[in-house]
Amino acid sequence: MTTLTHTHPTADADYELLAARFRPLFARIADGASRREQEHELPRQEIRALIDAGFGALRVPVAAGGFGASLPQLFRLLTELAAADSNIPQALRAHFAFVEDRLVSAGPQRDVWLQRFVDGEIVGNSWTEVGTVTIGDVITKVSPDPGSTDGDFRISGTKYYSTGSIFADWIDTFAQRTDNGVKVIAVVSTHQEGVTHGDDWDGFGQQTTGSGTSTFDHARVEAGNVIDFDTRFKYQTAFYQAVLLAVLAGSITAAERDVAREVRNRTRIFSHGNAPSFAADPQILQVIGEVSAAAYAADATVERAARALQHAYEGAFLADEVEDERRNDVAELETAKAQVVLSALATRATSDVFNALAASGVSTSKNFDRHWRNARTAANHNPWVFKARIVGDHSVNGTVPPRVWSIGAAPGAGKP
Questions:
Q1: How many Cα neighbours within 13 Å face the side chain of 156?
Q2: Do the beta carbons of residue 248 and residue 205 sit within 8 Å?
């Protein structure tokens, strides 16, 4: 059988050289993805192999020891990786976001962090407060350490949805200073007492992202690692969403791959079918073709969103505040539109693919349903219905989209 190489809409020689470095790793990751999910085995070795190959330093400039990948190149790679195991791009979501933040930052800490990324250090995430915390409140606190001669801090609090933190050397933590009330990012080393992480995420999809509860008990934070939140890179929300877009696109491709192989190898047919084999039945081929077309559209959608992010990144260096803001607003709108489209497309395609199978296709041993469960779970992050309204408000009224938002209990909830 001849298989044509998939050509990305904007594939280029530089990207192919970059991707060739990681595709053998992606193939090995794909081989064990279903088993890891069934056995709830976290992809520690797989993530470490990627990081050791330089994956975590994709965006670090070549002059600093990285690959200097553009954002479209990064998101193409994340989409390919998601087709191998959709959990891993999400597990690395916070890492790449923090890399992005350091790329647009200034000062001596920038070079320190870029070197850490090149050295293979990983950053996790810890932003969401546990329990009925009123929206806008931050319970996790950072306090000056009276015993430190270097102006260091101590952090205490509990966070949930700490995606990727179980694999990480550092945790990007949203907190509030007790001395001046400023909301900050505290970058906490995981290699110390006072930092614990539980793999207690109980979702029906994306089960091996290493999400769960992170607890900080007077853990040390270096003074240089307490960063005012207001200085965070402006396109962060769009960036986080774009990683989920890659997860959705990769999930469609993975479903197409697995079910096409099942159809190709199937020997049983139905008397009321259309051909002497499933692989030749035109109705079955139509189902696979429609899913393949959905994967194509998803790839193109991720590509367009990534280009908007690249423009936002470049806007940070223009010394033109008006244009910088415009580019960030465009990036937010582009990723919101993409989310609305891909949430429906991915969940539908990963469900429709079962139309090419018989009853044996729903066997838990085959685990084909994981693609729908993973897509459905990724689509439930950041509810798309709110994004659709925001896009519509911009279209009708010119309302600028919010670029930072939070989640929590409604004011007065649970109180007499």
A1: 6
A2: no
